[in-house]
């Protein structure tokens, strides 16, 4: 999203160079086979090095959910 698009929606962009995030796969029924603190979860369609705009991995829960809609 461009800075202009973000501003038009009332947001602001920042680099967040010193910010990090940790995933916690803790919801019952949605555990990750790669571990509780894995950065990606193959069951949800995560791909190592992928982006939020990539299609879910074939056979993943994410692909099944997408196909159901």
Topology at a glance:
Blueprint: H1 3-8, H2 61-68
Summary keywords:
20% helix, 0% strand, mainly alpha, 69 residues
Q: Can you describe what's shown?
A:
- Residues 49-69 are annotated as: Disordered.
- The protein has one domain (20-69).
- The protein has helices at residues 3-8, 61-68.
- It contains two helices and no strands.
- The protein is mostly helical.
- The model has no long low-confidence stretch (mean pLDDT 79).
Number of strands: 0
Percent of residues in helices comes to 10-25%
How many helix segments?
2
Number of domains: 1
* Uncertain spans: none
Shape summary: extended
Biggest β-sheet description: none
H and E string: HH
Q: Structural class, please?
A: mainly alpha
Strand content: under 5%
Radius of gyration: 15 Å
What is the CA-CA span between the terminal residues?
25 Å
Q: Which whole number gives the mean pLDDT?
A: 79
Concise description?
The protein is an all-alpha fold. Helices cover 20% and strands 0% of the residues. It has one domain.
């Amino acid at each position: 999203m461009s800075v202009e698009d973000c501003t038009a929606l009332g947001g602001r962009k920042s680099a967040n160079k010193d910010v990090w995030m940790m995933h916690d796969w803790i919801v019952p029924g949605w555990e990750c086979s790669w571990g509780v603190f894995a950065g990606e979860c193959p069951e949800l369609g995560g791909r190592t090095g992928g982006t939020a705009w990539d299609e879910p991995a074939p056979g993943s829960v994410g692909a099944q959910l997408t196909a159901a809609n």
